[in-house]
Amino acid sequence: MAARRTADGSPRPEGVTDVLRDGPTPKHAQLREILRELASEELLPGAPVPSERDLAVRYGVSRLTVREAVGQLVAEGLLVRVRGKGTFTTRPRVDSQLHLASFTEDMRRRGMQPETVLLDANEAIPPPTTAEALGLRPDQPAYWLYRLRKADGAPMAVERGWYHAGLLPGLLDHDLSDSLYTLLARNYEVQLESGTQTVLAEGADAETARLLGVRTGSPVLVFRRISTAQGRPIEDMTSWYRGDLYQVTMQLDRIPSGSGHHRPSRRPTGPTGREHPARRPGVHDTGGNR
Question: pLDDT digits over 103-149, tens only?
Fold first, then answer.
C-alpha cells in the first residue's frame, strides 16, 4: 500500500496514528483527501469504500464528518452511493458514438462482459403511436420485449420496446438474452441499417431506478429509437441508461437556417397500455447501441 499523505500533500510519517488532529485544515477536508487518494490510487473501479462507521472509528471522527467528506467526493463524481449496498468508487463512463450497433458486441469490443436479463416478452396490441411507427394496423399485434442490460455485472440500461411481429415470426421462441441484432441477422436475414433516435435526460422512475440500482429521480439518459431494415420499420425501442456510467459523443455539423428539424417522438407504452411518464422534447439524432 502506498504511503499515506497528509492534507497538505506531505508524506505521513511511519507510525503516526490514523486519527485526525485538529488544525488549520478541517477534519472533513483531511478525510476527503485521504479518501480521494484511496479511491484514485489504491481501489479498483467499482470497489466498495469502507463504511461510515468503519471510517469514523479508524480516523477518530464523527459519522457526520465522514458523511460530509464522502458527500463531497460523490458530488465530484469520484464516488457513488448505491442504495442498500454502500459507497463505491465510480466506474469509467462508457462512451457512445451514436451509431447502430449491438450492445453485446459493443461491450465486448470495449473489453467488458455484457449480460442481458429478459424481464418480460409478450405478443400484444401496441399503443397507437407504436402501431403508426411500425406501420401496423390498429388491431395488429407486435412483440413486446423488456430487458435489463449489464456490463461487467453493473446494470447499464433498461430497454422497453416493440418489434414488428409480421416481419419476425416466432421471435419469442428464440433466446432473447444475447445480441438481438445478431439474432435478427442470423435467423431472419434482417439487417437494421438506419434509425431515427431522440435523446434526452430525465429522472429515473421508481421501477427503472430499482433495476439500475440507483435512487429514484437519479439522472438517466433516455434514447427512443425507430429502426428500419430496407426501409421497413422493425423496432420501436426506448432505453434508459445510467447517467453516471454512460455518456454520448456526437459529430456536429452546422445546418443552414430554414432547413427544418424533426418532430419529438413519444416513447412506447407497455403491453398493458400503461403510459410511461410524459417526455419533454429532446435533442434529435440517429443511432445508438442494442
Answer: 777 777 767 788 999 999 999 999 999 999 999 999 999 999 999 99
Task: For residue 92, name the pLDDT band (cuts at 50, 70, 90).
Answer: low
Matching residue, cell 411507427: 133
* pLDDT for residue 67 is more than 80: yes
Residue 85 has pLDDT above 90, yes or no: no
DSSP-derived secondary structure for the chain: -PPPB-TTSPBPPTT--S----SSS-HHHHHHHHHHHIIIIISPTTPBPPPHHHHHHHHT--HHHHHHHHHHHHHHTSEEEETTTEEEEPPPPEEE---EE-HHHHHHHTT--EEEEEEEEEEEPPPHHHHHHHT--TT--EEEEEEEEEETTEEEEEEEEEE-TTTSTTGGGS--SS-HHHHHHHHH-----EEEEEEEEEE--HHHHHHHTS-TT-EEEEEEEEEEETTEEEEEEEEEEETTTEEE-----PPPTTS--PPPP-PPP-TT-PPPSPPPP-EEE--EE-
